[in-house]
Amino acid sequence: xxxxxxxxxxxxxxxxxxxxxxxxxxxxxxxxxxxxxxxxxxxxxxxxxxxxxxxxxxxxxxxxxxxxxxxxxxxxxxxxxxxxxxxxxxxxxxxxxxxxxxxxxxxxxxxxxxxxxxxxxxxxxxxxxxxxxxxxxxxxxxxxxxxxxxxxxxxxxxxxxxxxxxxxxxxxxxxxxxxxxxxxxxxxxxxxxxxxxxxxxxxxxxxxxxxxxxxxxxxxxxxxxxxxxxxxxxxxxxxxxxxxxxxxxxxxxxxxxxxxxxxxxxxxxxxxxxxxxxxxxxxxxxxxxxxxxxxxxxxxxxxxxxxxxxxxxxxxxxxxxxxxxxxxx
Length: 329
What we know:
By secondary structure, the protein is an alpha/beta fold. The chain has helices spanning 2-38, 163-171, 194-204, 232-236, 246-251, 268-285, 317-324, and strands spanning 181-186, 215-219, 225-230, 252-257, 294-297. The chain has a domain at 163-324: Peptidoglycan recognition protein-like (Lysozyme-like), CATH 3.40.80.10.
């Protein structure tokens, strides 16, 4: 019984505390509402208006008033420009140069040219047969106009020099006493022609005038066996590039036989065509001091300090000396 009584007593105390708490909240609410009703609202008295009362607007007249002139905008004060600093040393102004009076033109007096005195011509000595050629570089001798072409029919039978080849040789403007030597070469190749050698000399060796020889005689590989081809140096009558001497190139015609005559010999047709061409060229360039142009293999005319085996060990040197070393040949 006693535990039950204690439990009921505790429950009653809890409910009493809760009821008292609710009563306290309602009491607080009631007191708050009562205090708010008792508060008196104090009306706010407006402060006296110290600003002047607005004047009544005048009635609009019949005449419209002019538009108000817009107020000018205030001008901005321009910033003062910086004063230029004075130069330390003033540059002097250039003085104008005085004009130089132009000289009056003078009429030159006619000058009568003095008659030209021909220079003496020193003939070159004729070397003995098979002797090495020694030449001093003393310049060209005075030229005596152009050498006429040989008369037609002076050597009627031409086996290797066709009519067109002879006509092209004759058309060249050959100066008298220009060509003193005819030099025979080999190409050092077993095939080739004037066009191939011209390309090689121009683009590989860098020779501005191309083909170094004046004439080329084929061996049947790239041109006909014994065919005579005329180079541009003969047509233009300019120096060759076939001898290691500028002076000799100026006075020596070059004939190249296609072939390597250190291993092979020239063909019979090449030798016959070479003989015909040399005889015709001698007539075309004329005699110098009653002597025909001297015929030499390349190795016998090249300067001693530039030795060469051209035209090769198997070239018939006895044949060329027997044909062209005799007087009058």
